[in-house]
Amino acid sequence: MTPTLYHDGCNVCLDIARVLRTAMPGLAIVDLGLAPDAAFDAMALGVHDLPCLVVDGRVLPVAPHSVIGDVAAAHG
């Protein structure tokens, strides 16, 4: 499974995405502000807070400041 960063598209998340993209070549980055339907996939993986890194099935919150349910509710 490809390591994936899920985030809400805010400036803090965009900065984190830039840093992690450099540190982790091959990282998939999903901006839920641009792809809100992907929130349901992320929740199925166990993501609750954003931004969050999913690696080998492990959910690793990274400076969490947003709740994924808010993204899903706004678009579901």
TrEMBL record:
UniProt superkingdom: Bacteria
> What's the protein name?
Thioredoxin family protein
Q: Which organism is the protein's source?
A: Telluria mixta
